Amino acid sequence: MTEIKSLCVYCGSSPGAKPDYIALAEKLAQTMAEQNLGLVYGGAHVGIMGAVADRLMSLGGKAVGVIPEALVEMEVAHQGLTELHIVADMHERKATMAKLSDGFISLPGGLGTLEEMFEMLTWSQLGLHGKPCGVLNVAGFYDDLLRFLDNACAEAFMLPHHRELLIDSTDPKDLIARMKEYVPEVKSKLDWQLLQN
Which H/E stretch holds residue 56? Predict the structure, then answer.
């Protein structure tokens, strides 16, 4: 079992085209509040990012934002958070968010969300951390991405146990429960050799 006290949530600074995205972000926040889980996120007050933080705090939960100076200057920083860490750049932002979190959940988002999610998955694959990574698949948003990863396995660019590093669900309670059951894999020097065969 993995002890989780705080979750890093990667998500869009846009609300998206469907109301489902905000609705499930708020449902995730409610689930986190019920389980006394803190939020670590990108620190903005806009889009899905702002929705998940605002909902959690409205229920008495803690929300910690991490935002680069450049984005503070663009006036997107959330000024009502439990804590707001202002950092120098995106590299420091991601490292700080990872350090403060016990697991990672991706909601719908764009390039930044995908980049952050895949960096944590890559770090997990390389054994740089043993924290669970999950994706909350809202309204089929991640269906094509999950199929892509399955195809990467079929085409021998990923090992099946690396594909399994990304836990996916459509329900926040189910996703968090499965993340708590996550056991970090034991790294093997044979991984590269297995891809070659």
Answer: helix 47-58
In angstroms, the CA 123 to CA 90 distance is 17
C-alpha 155/C-alpha 167 separation (Å) is 20
Q: Which pTM was predicted?
A: 0.92
CB 117 within 8 A of CB 106: yes
Amino acid in position 115: E
Closest CA to 5 of 35, 30, 49: 35
Domains located in the chain, CATH noted: 6-142+162-187 (3.40.50.450)
Sheet holding 166-169, edge to edge: 83-87, 63-68, 38-41, 6-10, 104-106, 133-136, 166-169
Across 83-151, the runs of DSSP E, i.e. the strands, are 83-87, 104-106, 133-136
At 143, is the secondary structure helix, strand, or coil? helix
Q: 120 phi and psi, to 5 degrees?
A: -65, -35
Distances (CA, A) of 53 to 27, 102, 183: 11, 17, 28
User: Per-10-residue mean pLDDT for the chain, 197 residues long?
Assistant: 92 96 97 98 96 98 96 90 96 96 97 96 92 96 98 95 95 97 68 48
What gap in Å lies between CA 97 and CA 41, rounded to an integer? 7
